[in-house]
Amino acid sequence: MRRFKQFHLIVIPIAMFGFGYLMVPIYDIFCDITGLNGKTGSISQAEVDALDADQDRRVRVEFISALNQNAQWDFYPEVKSMKVTPGKSYTTTYTATNRLDQNTVGQAVPSVAPAQAATYFNKTECFCFVQQSFEPLESRQMPLVFVVDPKLPEDINTLTLSYTFFDVNSRIN
Amino acid sequence: MNAYSVDHSHDDLHDHGPPPGLMRWVTTTNHKDIGTLYLWFSLIMFFIGGFMALIIRTELFQPGLQIVDPHFFNQMTTMHALVMIFGVVMPAFVGLANWMLPMMVGAPDMALPRMNNWSFWILPFGFAMMLSTLFMEGGGPASGWTIYPPLVLQTGDALPFLIFSIHILGVSSIMGAINIVATIMNMRAPGMTYMKMPLFVWTWFITAYLLIAVMPVLAGAVTMLLTDKFFGTSFFDAAGGGDPVMFQHIFWFFGHPEVYILILPAFGIVSEIIPTFSRKKLFGYSSMVYATASIAFLSFIVWAHHMFTVGMPLAGEIFFMFTTMLIAVPTGVKVFNWVSTMWRGAMTFETPMLFAIGFVIMFTIGGFSGLMLAMTPIDFQYHDTYFVVAHFHYVLVPGAIFAIIAAVYYWLPKWTGNMYDEKLGKAHFWLSTIFVNILFFPMHFVGLAGMPRRIPDYAVQFTDFNQIATIGAFGFGFAQILLLVVAIKCIRGGAKATNEVWEGAHGLEWSVASPAPYHTFSPQPVVK
């Protein structure tokens, strides 16, 4: 009998196992470019100053909040919606209250709908950039500074920004 | 088809049988023994998975909750799918490949016989582990076989067992596939060029490449689930920067080629049977090969049609819609080739031929409902309804399963040396065909009317069609006992089969004695 010489039969499964993992960064990059997963972008103050505000245009930004199933918080936006001028920067806040009698840590994860608008919604400052620690029963307002890119497609007049607050205590411990 | 010559002068040297006793089956490296093991394993799992399906259909006989609680119902839909896909269709195809591939290419055995033993024997352990989860705290997996996070991460103690059993099944099929490719590449009889190989060999050759390419991706996906649950990674956890939708992309990158793994060998089987009973050469042999290869290639770039509703850019939806529809072209080539093979043939309708013709007609029905699902705007309405259930059951039951049954009837006389009971075989076919349509056709209607899948209860207006489907399910289930009866009767005795078995049969496997001797084709025949 001839010797086994189809080594590609061993190389392919190992490479494809690696490819499964490689799909993770590929997906992230793909989403970064397309905004496919609704993840918003961040932007520096210098870049905001360089933007030309589109004074003729008004875009409605709606704010909503959600908790994942285990989170013991009250969590809501200060205002439900704003009319904004693309290219100008705005500030609003979300309020979170720890309902528990102990220290706890949360992480807010943003998402923008429609997904095509996600890459045009940029933040210079956001409480979602870092994990938020709370004392027992502490309540506080958390700021958000954002700018809508003037290049936002013409047919999009309303953006909905959603924050989901996750309990991340188990990840830290 | 092929001209060949066999030198029988050395046959007596090799004409010893297997060792006696149970250890024969544990230690065997003989491709025929291992094929037999795979086929029996698959038949047992078929009845286990079928029993689960009957629990589902019994619960759905009436609206409201009757016999099982919803959590157990969800475990049944999940396990039914896992058992039928990984425990029935895939092992049955591998079993048929083990039995027939070496005989069809004129090889004395598989290229890697010891690995062959191993790839079978880890299967029963994998399934023992998977089925044992049903008896664990919190029950078995209940998230559907697609194991989407975050739902699947709520599974109780069963989760690591489910994941390890999927690893084991994956390792088993990758080893089986490596063996098949190595056999085809290295062990063909002198003179058998690639374009002279029987189509069952060709379709398995391509299927084996699909297997080694995508089973590792599934292994990676379930490993990520494992580390997300127990080791603090967040591949699919939004709180840690992950994305659950990404799991769907990785899963269906495996999942779509997987559905072709479940059907391409069936195409090969039907392409063997129809020419035999039409007494004509297969129409368009090379176009069949190229069509199979095109389907395999396209299967890698259509995965997101399973997830049109997750929120994709329009460009993505259009891309996946058109590539999906493109698959209809090579599949159409195959269907027309089968019909053209039958055209003006001297046809007879023995049981394998009946099942093969049933396959062509009913698989095509499943293909058409697949085309409807491929259209993105329409899919938003049909997504996760019984229309999807009807679609994939049409391609898998009267599709893949009918082809496997056809193959069993077709080659059973070669395996046992006896003819099976033709009357019982025909009864099996007609009962199966009538009941399978009573079972699955009404699902199209309730699906179009909006009945969601994987739900133990439903709105009352769906009752009539669900009751019809349940009657069909019990009829189809009990009709399969005939398959067991025919197989056992045939093993025990019956009219002696000739070497050719079928008048119109061509190919190397029909040149050896019936039953096929324990060792065949050493020395190898020469194909001219």
Integer tally of domains of chain B: 1
User: What is the assembly state of the chains in this entry?
Assistant: heterodimer
Number of domains of chain A: 1
| DSSP, total strands of chain A | 10
Number of helices of chain B: 18
Largest sheet of chain A: 5 strands, mixed
Strand content of chain B: under 5%
User: Class of chain B, according to the CATH hierarchy?
Assistant: Mainly Alpha
Query: Any idea of the CATH topology of chain A?
Result: Ctag/Cox11 (Pfam 04442)
Succession of helices and strands of chain B: EHHHHHHHHHHHHHHHHHHE
Helix fraction of chain A by DSSP (H/I, runs of at least 4): 10-25%
The unreliable regions of chain A are none
The CATH superfamily of chain A appears as: Ctag/Cox11
What integer value in Å does the Rg of chain A equal? Answer: 21 Å
Which features does this protein show?
heterodimer; A: 173 residues; alpha+beta; Ctag/Cox11 (Pfam 04442); five-stranded mixed beta sheet; 3 helices; flat; B: 528 residues; mainly alpha; Cytochrome C Oxidase, Chain A; two-stranded antiparallel ribbon; 66% helix; 1% strand; globular
Summarize the SSE layout with pairings.
The complex is a heterodimer of chains A (173) and B (528).
Chain A (H helix, E strand, L loop, with lengths): L7 H27 L6 E2 L2 H6 L8 E9 L5 E5 L3 E4 L4 E10 L5 E10 L7 E6 L5 E3 L4 E10 L9 E10 L1 H4 L1
Parallel strand pairs in A: 1-7, 2-10
Antiparallel strand pairs in A: 2-4, 3-5, 5-9, 6-8, 6-10, 7-9
Chain B lengths: L3 E2 L5 H4 L8 H5 L3 H29 L10 H36 L7 H20 L25 H29 L12 H32 L13 H18 L2 H15 L6 H14 L15 H13 L1 H15 L8 H24 L1 H7 L3 H31 L5 H27 L14 H17 L1 H12 L33 E2 L1
